[in-house]
Specification:
The protein is mostly helical. Helices cover 49% and strands 3% of the residues. It is built from 14 helices and three strands.
Length: 339
């Protein structure tokens, strides 16, 4: 983990066909990262999977069958998992206030000392009160990049998904003193995805979507984003909506945006509203999306105490010297999935 081999900033990470991670000969519904459970197979093994025998719409059939062949059946079952409304996002709740973490990932804070993710309100409230200990584990908070990297590297070596993602993100962007190394970043992000981390799937999917540091492959991008969406990730829904819409599948795009809107995503709600004005979204779906969006946003509203802490923070001088004595500048990181 401490290797900092030189790598050109624009180096492409070539994923070979013989890789354990991907194979172009593998049916899309059967793709899986090594070490990870096959989502489609897991669902197909359930007792009710054998009851799926109805035909797919003409545009969803493989072209060689009029009823569900094995590939079409897998696709249908995967879609049932994909378009099921999640009960909560993959981020879960803040481990201090137990309020759902906000959709805006910039309002969350990863603690490198204990690998917990907190809302920014709870994190800031502690430091405003003059406490320099982690509000969750009560351990000392590192104040330098070197300390953070040392802790995170050890956790990543022991198989912690968040730590692998953290290091992968830093290597990808050349942050915290690390040399930019896309190849090493891809390896770490893949390891995090193998461990089931949804936003690692989003990061990989977005790399394949844009062709940033890897060969562009929209099918692999779709696969990773779907894996993240099945696990409850909200950002992946917006990206999937864009991909599906670009491919002329507006019905699937709208499904993704409705799910994301109901989980509190502002941009998705705007997309649903646009679909409603164009007659692509029914009044019932738009109304239910708007109500669910409001409930989701209300569930993540800050308490008066948290708001007071954030207001107090505004009164603190943000000069470099003063900030270093108030709040460590790199306690962990605000989760960023895409730059």
């Amino acid at each position: 983990m401490n290797s900092l081999e030189d790598a050109p900033a624009d180096e492409k990470v070539i994923v070979s066909d013989s890789s354990d991670t991907f194979s172009d000969e593998t049916p899309r519904g059967d793709w899986s990262l090594s070490g990870d459970e096959k989502v489609a197979d897991t669902i197909l093994d359930s007792s009710d999977a054998d009851t799926i025998t109805d035909s797919l719409p003409a545009d969803e059939i493989c072209g060689e069958c009029t009823e569900l062949c094995e590939d079409c059946r897998r696709r249908r079952v995967r879609d049932e998992a994909l378009f099921k409304q999640p009960e909560e996002s993959d981020l879960g709740d803040c481990q201090i206030c137990f309020i759902p973490l906000p959709v805006n990932i910039h309002e969350t804070q990863y603690m490198s000392c204990c690998a917990q993710t907190l809302c920014t309100g709870c994190f800031v409230a502690v430091f405003v009160d003059g406490d320099r200990k982690c509000p969750f584990c009560r351990g000392s908070v590192p104040s330098t990049d070197e300390e953070i990297l040392e802790r995170v590297t050890k956790r990543a070596a022991s198989g912690d998904a968040e730590s692998c993602y953290f290091l992968g993100h830093k290597f990808l962007n050349g942050m915290m003193g690390l040399r930019k190394d896309p190849k090493r970043a891809f390896e770490l992000l893949t390891e995090a995805a193998n461990l089931g981390l949804a936003h690692a799937h989003v990061a990989i999917g977005n790399m394949f979507r844009t062709g940033d540091h890897v060969e562009q492959d929209l099918e692999k991008a779709m696969f990773h984003l779907e894996e993240a969406a099945i696990r409850g990730n909200i950002l992946s829904r917006s990206l999937l909506g864009e991909l599906e819409n670009d491919e002329g599948r507006a019905d699937r795009a709208i499904k993704h945006w409705i799910i994301a809107a109901k989980m509190g995503d502002d941009d998705a709600l705007s997309a649903v509203k646009a679909g409603y004005t164009q007659g692509l979204v029914s009044k019932e779906d738009f109304s239910s999306s708007l109500r669910a969006w409001k409930d989701a946003v209300d569930a993540t509203k800050k308490t008066k105490q948290e708001k007071g802490a954030l207001e107090s923070l505004k009164d603190i001088s943000m000069s470099e010297n003063n900030l270093s004595t108030q709040i460590p500048s790199a306690v962990g990181y605000s989760k960023v999935l895409t730059e």
